[in-house]
Amino acid sequence: MTPPPLCTGHAPWLSMSRRECLNRLALGVGGIALADLLAQDATAAPPNSPALPPSLSPSSATGLPHFPAKAKRIIYLFQSGGPSQLDLYDHKPLLNARHGEQLPDSVRGSQRLTGMSGNQSSIPIAGSPFKFSRYGQSGAWISDLLPYTAKIADDLCVIRSMHTEAINHGPGVTFMQTGSQIPGRPSFGSWLDYGLGSANANLPSFVVLITKDKKGQPLMSHLWGAGFIPAKHQGVRFRSGADPVLYLNNPAGVSPENRRLALDRLRELHEHQFAGTPDAEISTRISNYEMAFNLQTSVPEVTDLSAEPAAVVDSYGPEARTPGSFAANCLLARRLAERGVKFIQLYHQDWDHHGSLPSGIKRECLQTDQPAAALIADLKQRGMLDETLVVWGGEFGRTNYSQGIMTANNFGRDHHPRCFSLWMAGGGVKPGITYGETDDYGYNVTKNPVHVHDLHATILHLFGVDHERLTYRFQGRRYRLTDVFGKVVNDILT
Prior knowledge:
By secondary structure, this protein is of the alpha/beta class. It has a single domain, classed as Alkaline Phosphatase, subunit A (3-Layer(aba) Sandwich). It contains 13 helices and 17 strands. It has helices spanning about 20-45, 60, 95, 105-110, 145-150, 170-180, 190-195, 255-275, 280-305, 310-315, 325-340, 355-380, 450-460; strands at about 75-80, 130-135, 140-145, 155-165, 205-210, 235-240, 345-350, 390-395, 395-400, 415, 420-425, 435, 435-440, 445, 450, 470-475, 475-480. Strands 1, 4, 5, 6, 7, 8, 11, 12 and 15 form a nine-stranded mixed β-sheet that branches. Strands 2-3 form a two-stranded antiparallel sheet. Helix 8 (about 255-275) runs antiparallel to helix 9. The radius of gyration is 26 Å and the shape is globular. The relative contact order is 0.20.
């Protein structure tokens, strides 16, 4: 059968050489691909023309918030390494009663173990050496390692049924911060900045603070990176010391006036470039230059704690006057929150207690207990807690059995993703409740499980964002923080 003609009229390809025909075909396919990519860029992000001051809020383009928000800002106190829930918040008397006995196979089931304890010939149950008591009207069980946190028990929503698929630190921390175990996705703070914008033109919407001089698993920049959304939404790390943001200050001999003139001329060049090549990264570059100029005056002011009343500084603990300590970072977080920073991410490492857990966890609690409790009290006293969501927790929990040899005074716990504890306060979360339960061995969730995706969906909900509708198109697919999972935990919301 003779195939139908491709078109009517003159067919120029009949007189073309094979090479010329293939060349034109390639150009046509390339044009189609380019048009599709440009269409994706046009729908992926809010338009910010470089010819105008970059918008502080893309809500007009994204339709956000989707409904009234209860939280205006979040302070996330991330405890990297996996704090032991069994020694802090999840009281299990049975473990002490059966201390040293072998963990029954019926409890463990088919759960995989890490390579660090999977080959042990013995997995003895390890009870907590620390005393638990009930505190506040809520009666929350809290370890005596956390005397200051115990005082704010009625402000906390303790979730004891968190769970994750990640069993190692790299994927686990990445999952908690980006919604994916594989690096490359936008971080939580970047999603919020992309969707809701900033409330302060002189400070970033997303700031990262890391406790200095800590050991433990490394913290990579992808944890606060923007992934495939515009780079202007990535977190800005504030370091301790005289230069909180690297390369921010003017070189010797360059005045602020000269810097302003140089940036104005550079902006004109970028606008000219954008007119010929509408690349979103050019707009991002302009925004970053402008933000850096504004930071030159705003960062020294916000990081200067000398104006804080002595009583306030002292409430955060003896390390509050040491720049870069967890205590100083908690105080700085409150100051950033006051100035409109939307997402303030604190990282505190060294909770990875495979051995010497009794001494190791005491050390970390001494560094974090008082500052975290003082932050809640400080926000509450200033009338900010109702609109500030504070989150405390790590990437997974610890096992109910000992890793390695257990002695009378020493033992360690391995990674445990099946259940761990986390607390939230303020920002539309019910205070004074404990949510979720684990079995008597502290090994499996038995009531009201909360997955990492559920946590993310719930936090976005508190900011007035439907987690299924905050998306970004990349490589032909619309991505979201919760991937294709997640449900809002309405039971913990006011």
